[in-house]
Amino acid sequence: MPAFAANLSMLFTEADFMDRFRLAREAGFTGVEYLFPYEWPEEDLKRELESHGLTQVLFNLPPGNWAAGERGIACLPDRVEEFEAGVDHAIRYARSLGCRQVNCLAGIRPNTLDESVAWQTLVDNVGHAAVRFEDEGMTLCLEAINSRVDIPGFFLDTSARVMQLIETVDADNVKLQYDLYHMQIMEGDLIRSVECLLPWIGHVQFADNPGRHEPGTGEINFRNVFAALDRLGYGGWVGAEYRPRGSTTESLDWFRNGA
Ligand SMILES: O=C(O)[C@H](O)C(=O)CO
Ligand SMILES: [Mg+2]
């Protein structure tokens, strides 16, 4: 089985955020990821990671005004300064937490923004972040997110689009974040896609579809998909990024018994 990380923004939400690290460790996870670390002091997060022997696997760059519905600012030309400041902020957290990968959310393109301007802004911002991350020995991930259900208008909504960006930026430390849930909605053909894209995949996440719940609640054959990741020699982390249908503990059969 691959190395699984618990996504603490979605799992163990029965408990306060700081208690979720311990719960993840007690459930058997050795890595954690979550949306953003920025509202907590670095020392507090570091203490939880260290005292429970957990690896901080991933978090996202600052996304703009999340509460107001923003989902990243990397494609927005009037937010470049904020994007660059966010890269610096993320690097400070990643250093303290020993986190080697940070995900960049491309954002939602407003209808009034020309597609080619959004694209060039994204290329320039990702290029800038790649250089800054390279100095730190870190990887920048780019996630394709479905625009059919979860984030209508999300600018990077297919693996092909992310691959086009990776080719354009042409930096070794820029990778595809392949979320099986989003890609099942947009593309399907998961195992063949993972096989083709493997050299560029920096991180994998999952949830079943429909519903974005745990394996076994929808249409994805996780036993076969996880076996394929092993067979193909995927050496990265796999983030459990689903909303448990009941309690988190009840949702973990796939982890205890194999998907
Ligand atoms: O929702 C997801 O799949 C993401 O991984 C994320 O971090 C923000 O939307
Ligand atoms: Mg995801």
Task: Pick out its properties.
alpha/beta, 259 residues, 10 helices, binds magnesium ion, single chain, HPT_OtnI_isomerases, binds ligand LJYKPCYY, HyI-like, 8-stranded parallel β-barrel, TIM Barrel
If you had to describe this structure to a student in words, what would you say it looks like?
39% of the residues lie in helices and 15% in strands. With 259 residues, it is α/β, with parallel strands linked by helices. It has one domain: Alpha-Beta Barrel (TIM Barrel). Strands 1-2-3-4-5-6-7-8 form an eight-stranded parallel barrel, surrounded by five helices. Helix 3 runs parallel beside helix 4 (115-135). The chain is globular and about 50 Å long. It starts with a strand and ends with a helix. The chain binds ligand LJYKPCYY and magnesium ion (MG). Residues 35, 60, 103, 105, 143, 145, 179, 182, 205, 241 line the site of the ligand O=C(O)[C@H](O)C(=O)CO. Magnesium ion binds at residues 143, 179, 205, 241. It comes from Marinobacter iranensis. Keywords: Isomerase. It holds the Pfam family AP_endonuc_2.
SSE map:
Blueprint: E1 3-7, H1 20-26, E2 31-33, H2 42-51, E3 55-60, H3 80-97, E4 101-104, H4 115-135, E5 139-143, H5 159-169, E6 174-179, H6 180-186, H7 190-197, E7 201-206, H8 222-232, E8 237-240, H9 248-251, H10 253-257
Parallel strand pairs: 1-2, 1-8, 2-3, 3-4, 4-5, 5-6, 6-7, 7-8
